[in-house]
Write a structure and sequence with these properties.
2 domains, binds iron/sulfur cluster, about 450 residues, three-stranded antiparallel sheet, seven-stranded antiparallel sheet, 12 strands, alpha+beta, 13 helices, Jelly Rolls
Amino acid sequence: MERALQCASCPAQGEFGVDAMKGTSAPVSIADLQSEDFFRSLVPALSISDRITAEPYPLAAPARWSSSGYALLRDVVPGHRVPMLAEAIRALVARGLHPIFAYVFDEFWEPALSVQAYAQSVLGPCSLLGDGWAWLIPVGDRYGGWSAHRDCRHDVSMATLWVALTDTDIDSACMHLVPLDRDPAFTARRLDDDSATDRGIAIGARAGSALFWDARMLHWGGRSSERAHSPRISVSYTFAANAALGVDAREALDPRGSFPFRKRLGAIASMIALYDFREPLPDAITNWGRMFGRRRAADVRSRLSPDELREHVIHHCCTRRCYGRAGESALCCKVAERDCIIGPVTDSSSFLDRLAAERGRPVPSSEVFVDFDEGRALFPTRSTWQNPAHYPAMRVHVDAAKGHPCRFLSEHGECTIHAIRPAVCRNYHCEHLSTVLSML
Ligand code: SF4
Ligand code: SF4
């Protein structure tokens, strides 16, 4: 069998730190997470009360749902609030917490409540679900949002509200949507088909504004770049028509009713249990989320399509249990001390086209590939780098301390171009991963 990814001894030696809580000065304990006082002291400018109110978003605003299935809503978060919310997420991250914990604060539920009447005008009577996420995507092309997906693969009325807390544009990981009327898979109601990524449009949003889209829409978070003016900070929410409740196990919430701290923690735990496969979190946090949100997440996962389940397993295996080692990730995306090379990239030309479309600029070959002349000098003692048949190869950061990682590998051990990665990566399953997949 041909080995697309040339590797003399997989897996590599050495440590890889997957730690979304990095940056902390002192470890945050599970007891801290469950303490209202801990969060109050961390962000004293925000509040945690028993119920939440919010002014409705003005329905007379020009944004209108249309056949495209999305609308841009301006000023969903009042101007004076925007920096406060962005700062709160920065404070959580600086303390070593994932931004998802912002949902303990009243102010992070207000955007959803203020838009609920608008959502109702689109979906009919609807509820807010315990399904959302929060992001802080750092500056730099190693960072980006979630890969292409649909928030709902059932043919029901659901919508996602995504709120920008910093200005986003093509350089700072703005959202990309495939409008429903441009997506052949949607027209044919093949909601497990995510292939229309070449029809996506990048949509910038000012801080405080929001995108509201049909949850069946194919979409993804863009890449950041060195040209980004700041990290991208954003939050999301999900609404479902009441008639669609129960289609899957995502639970309706009522923040206007009794919504104390413990209930919010339960919602956060369920979100972590739903989406930990998208972002590697520390095991303690993942386990905590699964304990509190386990049943709901398991119910939702049981509704994944076979392709989604396969992607989910690959993602979990490669980012959390690479080669069966707990906490290990992406060993085959680093050269480390091994005699291996990530090549040959047989679809180099179409890969460059995909990358250029995603980045919105031409991408020179030398930016992402190493050719034979350069490669053989980079690693003169490694046989895989001395064979011209293995080129072009993926460019790596020549940094022994970091294990010579592929230039597209994030510091969390994830491929930052997962949806458009070249065939050499798409087709490579190490022995361990092949065994796991054969059991599905
Ligand atoms: S294929 Fe996945 S599990 Fe196997 S070495 Fe690569 S990252 Fe690790
Ligand atoms: S492109 Fe992505 S999958 Fe391929 S080696 Fe680089 S980080 Fe890994």
